[in-house]
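In this supplementary section we document a worked example of the pipeline. Step one takes a protein sequence of length 297 as its only input; no multiple sequence alignment statistics are reported here. Step two produces a three-dimensional model, which step three serialises into structure tokens for compact storage. The input and output of this example are shown verbatim.
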Amino acid sequence: MSVLVLVNPRAGTSHGRMRLAEKAAALFPPGEAEIVVPGSREELRERARAAGEEGAGLVVAVGGDGTVREAACGLVGTRTALGILPLGSGNGFAGGLGIGLSAAKALAVLRDGRDLAVDVGYVNGEPFFNLSGIGFDAVVGEEFNRGAVRGMLPYIGIAARESLQYRRVEVSIRLPDREVIARVFLVTVANLGQFGGGAEIAPGADPSDGLLDIVVIRRLSAFELMFHAPKLFHGSVTGLSALETYRSRAFRIVRAQTGPLHLDGEPFRLGHVLDYAVRPAALRVRVPSKGAPVPVE
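The serialised model returned by step three reads:
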């Protein structure tokens, strides 16, 4: 077995996810790919880890950002590449790497793509691959993950509700050359730049530069949030006057009190002191080759 296809049993429809997994397996010679439906997140991570240790060429995650994160955690530090067939609500990691949200295009990347070594971010020892954040987006993400309904519309509804009652967070961001003390709407730490659904909070983030981008928005009212939200989808959020960006290999964020934190959209609680660092080129990912791939139907 040189290709392992890991399927999230709760992503998409049962028929749709298995059909997609079978299409992925069919891209490779008979007997080369194995399809596995793990019974838990822990098993998914362990299957990926074992495949990496055994020298598999590719592990394909069929699911959303949570599925991708668990598979990636198992592959950090190995030569095995991560492939992505996105079936989630946001798919920020796939979108940020140019894999896109189309099944046909994602399959073409598995078949024709190249393997890119990308950085891995850490906060208090926990890895993240796309984004981590505190403040407004972490609060919204925590509420979203408590619900049973997926998709962008429920997420937007929660964001609209929380924007009317959200209270800013007091933080100290301790960078190697300065300290930023502020009450903030959010702080997003970006390895890649996309929240998901095409919304970019850090368009300039480069997953191969050995740095993390720190995006700080100090103040944003409910009206300003609605007015400026389209900029996330047009790549122009960096023009927002309330936004500041810093870059660093390692830094500390100290919050006045503990609160929600997200890693690739997954909610965590890691205390009020958050130590961030980056491990350069620690994960291999199958990404598009130069030139548009021919979609797999």
